[in-house]
Amino acid sequence: MSSSECLRVRGLSASWGTTPVLSDIDLDVNDGEFVVLLGPNGSGKTTLLRTIVGLESPTSGSVALRGRSLDGTPTYRRGIGMLFQEPALFPHRSVWENVAYGLELARRPREQIDRRVDAMLDMLRLAALADRRPDTLSGGERQRVALARTLAPEPPIVLLDEPFASVDVEIRTALRSEFRRALSTTGTAALHVTHDREEGLALADRVILLSDGRVAQSGAPEDVYRKPVDARVARFLGYNVVSERGTSLAIAPEDVELGPPDSSPTRGVVTLNGFAGRDRVVEVTLPDGVRVECRTSQESGLAPVGASVSLRWRRSVALA
Ligand code: ADP
Q: Ligand 1 center to residue 15 CA distance, Å?
């Protein structure tokens, strides 16, 4: 075990009935590290989290926390924090009492509980809401309470399952940075599940991409984004995948340059042209039916639907 190793998963497989859902997953999270598990819906992310905390049993493989095997340990004794999309707060308890819950369960001394709960409420800007009941709070406030409650007993790691998915879009970005800051203040590691690639890439120290129950790729967000391993990962990351002289190329929408019809051998017809703030989003359909999305400046994206255009790539990644 390396000195900073927090969570270690080896060879983990799981099935629903006879259908395999996770195949031979290896995964590490170091102390204090924020790892994002990213993948399309149905790729097995939630099943992986549930198996790590012991809510599902693996068909094979092992899970260890700080070098201690958790195989066979019931969920409540694993010492892993877990936070879901919908925070399961106790409706008849105040915010303060919700945050105190895990500490009371662990029979911590009263004055330690008081100190810890107050610190958690301060850190997550909840002190003024201490006496409120969960049903009087906004969605974002409820998630902050859920995080305070999860962090209060000082778990070395928390597993976060789409914690921002049911929160209003306007406050999602602020809530993300609040979560990130709270975890780094407390030095807690996180394994955060999302299908939102922008959220995942923006938050992660390291990304693990799951595809069909397998780890397809992992690494620093920039590295994963710049070098997708295959067409599937590339599409998930928002690339166009185009076949040229027998090679598949991944091309980011902002790396597609539109020109007059005769300025490049790659030609197509504009099939959509939409406003996107500073940019325009233009879809061009190639003669073989492949649709290419381009993000371009307002000035260079003026070709109307039905116009013939040519395409050039400023940058492309050859795929295996
Ligand atoms: P994700 O979190 O990436 O969306 P899930 O882990 O929820 O993926 O699901 C992975 C696969 O397992 C899917 O094919 C899904 O249909 C299946 N699955 C999930 N939960 C159940 C369940 N309770 N019973 C049967 N199949 C399930």
A: 9
Residue 21 has pLDDT above 90, yes or no: yes
Pocket residues: Cβ below 6 A from ligand 1: 16, 21, 39, 41-47
Q: Which helix (H) or strand (E) holds 86?
A: none
Residue 232 lies in a domain: no
Sign of the four-CA dihedral 163, 167, 172, 177: negative
How many residues are given for the chain?
320
Model's pTM, two decimal places? Answer: 0.92
Task: Tell me which residue has its CA closest to atom 14 in ligand 1.
Answer: 42
| pLDDT given at position 2 | 53
The CA-atom distances, in angstroms, between 227 and each of 99, 197, 223, 251 are 42, 15, 6, 11
User: What is the distance between the alpha carbons of residues 31 and 190, in angstroms, rounded to a whole number?
Assistant: 9
Q: What is the pLDDT of residues 196-216, one digit of tens each?
A: 999 999 999 999 999 999 999
Choosing from 180, 199, 226, the residue where a domain stops is 226
Burial class from Cβ neighbours inside 10 Å (0-12, 13-18, 19+) for residue 247 reads exposed
Among 199, 226, 253, the domain boundary falls at 226
> CATH code at 283?
2.40.50.140
Q: How far is the CA of 88 from the centre of ligand 1 (A)?
A: 20
Beta strand 206-211 pairing with 34-38: parallel
Nearest-CA neighbor of 311 among 70, 296, 174, 228? 296
Q: Same structural domain for residues 248 and 206?
A: no
Describe the strand order of the beta sheet including 206-211 as a list of residue ranges: 81-83, 157-161, 189-194, 34-38, 206-211, 214-219
How far, in Å, is the centroid of ligand 1 from the Cα of 41? 9
The model's pLDDT over 95-136, given as tens digits with 9 standing for 90+, comes to: 999 999 999 998 999 999 999 999 999 999 999 999 999 999
pLDDT (mean) for 149-168? 94
